[in-house]
Design goal:
Elements: E1 2-7, E2 15-21, H1 30-48, E3 52-56, H2 64-83, E4 87-91, H3 93-101, H4 108-118, H5 128-153
Parallel strand pairs: 3-4
Antiparallel strand pairs: 1-2
Helix pairs in contact: 1-2, 3-5, 4-5
């Protein structure tokens, strides 16, 4: 599972503070793998004190076993975020692609190229899970900026 912590301001480009893959032992039981995810997320939340947690909404999966495993991991992510009192946002893959590239039909390589530009990365991200996490974080930052602008325009 990839993760990304970004810092974004109202008029600045986002900066990636931390990103990577949550290490989960392959030989561990499913329960041990979920515990490893929860422990890693709790540590990341404690270290970085984010205001929000954004994740990909499970869209569709033909493989029921994979969908179940992903759903269980998503449940752990949601639990950790809620336990920490974070704002939680979910985005479909198409929403992420549209926010990052301008096209909901963009491929992974286009997303990876754009996150490099949007987050001013020194090196390209080659791990799909990490690139997805950065793209989701950038999508949430964009949505949060838009919500702030709308609130200001409405006088809230």
């Amino acid at each position: 599972m990839g993760y990304a912590v970004i810092d974004s301001g109202p008029s600045e480009l986002a900066t990636v503070v931390s990103c990577g893959v949550v290490a989960v032992p392959r030989e561990a039981s499913n329960a041990e793998r979920l515990l490893a995810i929860a422990t890693a997320l709790d540590l990341l939340i404690a270290e970085h004190a984010p205001r929000a947690l954004a994740l990909e909404r499970l869209f569709f999966n033909k493989n029921v076993r994979t969908a179940m495993l992903v759903s269980e991991a998503r449940g752990i992510v949601l639990l950790c975020g809620a336990r920490a009192g974070l704002e939680i946002a979910e985005y479909t893959p198409q929403e992420v692609k549209l926010a990052v590239t301008g096209s909901g039909a963009a491929d992974k390589r286009a997303v990876q190229r754009m996150i490099g530009l949007l987050a001013r990365l020194e090196r390209p991200i080659t791990q799909d899970n990490v690139a997805d996490a950065i793209a989701i974080a950038l999508t949430h930052a964009q949505h949060a900026q838009l919500a702030t602008l709308v609130a200001v325009a409405e006088g809230r």
